[in-house]
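Two proteins follow. First one:
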Amino acid sequence: MKENKKVTEYINKTSTEQGEILNSLRQLIHETISGTTEDIKWGIPVFTKTKIFTYLRSTKNHVALGLYNIDRINDPNGLLEGTGKNMKHLKINKAEDIEEGLIKEWLKATVE
């Protein structure tokens, strides 16, 4: 995993709990989609293969994992939030809430 210094700085500015969530998701993204690059755009970490496929955002109460190409994602439990046609997000409040299997499935779907 090639870390971008700006993304590391973004994560380091968050609370300990949110930093843990962000670092876990960052690692999961890189493990799941090989060749991913990361950068800061619009003030948040974004992850790119050929195009941006996901982003992370720290808010006051949660971390958001944003996903593009949502038409490729199977979300029968309605976990994704937002009103966008091409992008929605998953809110994560605690590190224990990270459903690795589901997130890996969704990340792969957004890139394929």
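Second one, unrelated to the first:
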Amino acid sequence: MKLLRKDVDYAVRALMCVTLAGGEPVSSSAIAASQKIPLRYLRRLLTRLISAGFLTAREGAGGGVTLAVSPREITLV
């Protein structure tokens, strides 16, 4: 029995990965590899999470995504 849709599951796992980075930018390819999420699918999810205000993105060398809000402010409700 599935409790979460695939996109919600992947989004939660991506947010956890970014949270565990402790404020350091995490590349989409690093998240995809560590969480075994297809990269193209993950990039679409990250775009939605950025638009929703959960993440911020920085392009270029040393770039990636970081949390835009405190982890305590993120809920599944």
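SUMMARY FIELD: The longest helix spans residues 6-20. The mean pLDDT is 92.
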